[in-house]
Amino acid sequence: MMRSPGFVPDFIEKISQRALRVGVIGLGYVGLPLVRAFVDKGFPVIGFDIDPEKIDLLSKGRSYLRQFADAKIAEMRATGRFDATADFARLAEADAILICVPTPLTRQREPDMSFVEATTEAIAARLRPGQLVILESTTYPGTTRELVRPILERTGLKSGVDFLLAFSPEREDPGNINYETSSIPKVVGGDGEDALQAAAALYAAAVVKVVPVSSPDAAEAVKITENIFRAVNIALVNELKVVFERMGIDIWEVIEAAKTKPFGYMPFYPGPGLGGHCIPIDPFYLTWKAREFEVATRFIELAGEINTGMPGYVVERLSEALNERFGKALKGARILLLGVAYKKNVEDCRESPAFKLIENLERRGAMVDFHDPFVPVIPKLREHPTLIGRRSVPWAPADFVTYDAALICTDHDAVDYAALVASVRLVVDSRNATKGVTRDRDRIVKA
Prior knowledge:
There is one protein chain. This protein has helices at 8-16, 31-40, 52-59, 70-78, 114-124, 143-153, 193-204, 216-247, 251-258, 282-292, 298-308, 310-326, 353-363, 417-423; strands at 22-25, 45-48, 82-85, 96-99, 132-135, 164-167, 186-190, 210-213, 334-338, 367-371, 405-408, 427-429, 444-446. By secondary structure, the protein is an alpha/beta fold. The chain has 2 domains: 8-214, Rossmann fold; 309-447, NAD(P)-binding Rossmann-like Domain (Rossmann fold), CATH 3.40.50.720. It has an 8-stranded mixed beta sheet with strand order 3-2-1-4-5-6-7-8, sandwiched between helices. The chain has a 5-stranded parallel beta sheet with strand order 10-9-11-12-13, with helices on one face. Helix 13 (353-363) links the parallel strand 9 and strand 10 (367-371). Helix 1 (8-16) runs parallel beside helix 7. It is elongated and about 75 Å long. The model has no long low-confidence stretch (mean pLDDT 95).
């Protein structure tokens, strides 16, 4: 029987006294909000990142995320409780280490665990008795036990005896002004009861509610389930969009009417394809893991096929509209793409369908420019290397008359869609962004 480590009561007491030092690895869209939640509750926090530019900006009290104003970073720095560093030797200073690093897919659509593995190796090199390590990165069930724990235990220290280990999935939604880290319930699964108790106590001091589950595997499955739920339902409305379009029915009108039912229905909306750090990726983590148990995930894989096919469908709608209305082919056409961020009102471009749209259009001979009020330059991407560095054209509706068509990929609120429709003779709208436009609606084609 595993003996209970004697340091747990002291660990929890340090939480109550705000004397426990929190380390957060990965200062992106997940890690930085987590830092803020703990600093705001009075905890000393060390933020770790391998990007020296991020560390430099944070050290100067400046932000690199739109959702974080410079003033907020400066305020955290002014408390004296927040320090940002690229020196991973300082992991030994942290009592609790929270891992918030990417978990992308390989080109073969298999889990790329290199970031989690490298981070865990860095922790293991400084691991000391009495520390709590929590993985927050979205992953397949079993990662904490099968990947993270063995690396840490190669030090000779044992989980549940010398150190504590847990999983608590991030639930961030960049751009959502209704929720922040502290107001979102935190699911926690510990590698043993002591780990669960300590991790739950830590999060309870910073967020509105803690939801304990029986194991890290269960906590990992919770996040996968949440994201698969969204992916499958988005695939459903994307498929309905295609069917209803052939019937001459507007899917957006159908959804607006259907959501008036007060029970048994939840609205999801179609689009040009999936984007972001979760929905296009996470379902395939479970698909990959299920093969180990000889289980087919046909429903998930079908949803993936439908969603990944949406950029092609949108391009076909654009091609058909150009040909039917003007007798013009895509080859040689000038296209203005609206929005390269993966969703509205954010600068986050991860996995955005915009890049597949651009590449698809250009392969077919179109000339494509883009405008995005939040993305002046296409940043470094895991894929689409030829698009990196391209710049957003200025918002100048008077100049847009030179384009053969505009394609709306991201429905940013800051865009004047009425002015766009007035300036471009064909607007293909994949987000229903033009729903409020009353004039020249004959120029609009939904996709």
